Description:
The chain is an all-alpha fold and 313 residues long. Helices cover 77% and strands 3% of the residues. The longest helix has 34 residues, at 95-128.
Amino acid sequence: MDIKNTSMITEFVLLGLTSTWELEIFFFLIFLLSYAAIMAGNRLIVVTVTFDFHLNSTPMYFLLGNLSFLDMTISTITTPKMITDFLREKKTISLWGCMVQMFFLHFLGGSEMTLLVVMAVDWYIAICKPLHYTTIMNHWVLVGSVLLSWGVGFVHTMSQMVFTITLPFCGPNVVDNIFCDLPLVLKLVCTDTYILELLVIADSGLLSLICFILLLISYTVILVTLRGRSSGGLSKALSTLSAHITVVTLFLGACIFIYAWPFSCLSVDKFLSVFYSVITPLLNPIIYTLRNQEMKAAMSRLRTQHVSSRQNL
Length: 313
């Protein structure tokens, strides 16, 4: 079906978070500062991991750098548009702009879910099989794991978007959210989309749920393995895992509620959309830098090297 011949809609209207001007100014400032912090914090992690030899040769930090890159990109797809919309009376996005936004949201979101599972496996091997860690988590395994996460994200988004871009949009064009969300956009299609909506729930919802269950299993195995060890070892493991568990719970929890929860509530959907695109990417640098001594030491080394190089010039 040719979308150019069947579609009468050239743009969608995004209702955003509020229609009150005072609140829009308030949200504009809050999300502008949040986006600046997201970009600065996650970019700092990527640069530190890339240029510090000790970190980029360590599997955990190699995966963390990839996670920060995904967080930056996910936030960039939605947040700048949302920020500028707070200053506009009519918040619109073109039809193909909406399609591109949904494509990359599901592509990067699926990749991040899979990467979180890979990070949990890395934690499991590091804590439960420390003697075999360097052998198992070698360079090729790491690269393959990252490529796998991107591959899962690509298959995930293509399985939905290949059908969505051919649908005719000739009715209402109002999306009651801060960005184009696939379940809400499908409600604006002129034809019956019951089967496609089930596919979206099965695809996005089950992917989120399966990843969450796998992560719970991995954490449970780690804690059971450490149960017989000293209380100090258990305490250290809990401290190490708590940051990862926090990110995983918030990110996957939002995805599960958006796509797999049987009840729809627009106010909750908007809140979870903000959580998914703004709050979670903001928490990543806060959790992994402020609580991580190795990361702070690496940043200090890079800062010292930068200062020394400028002095030599």
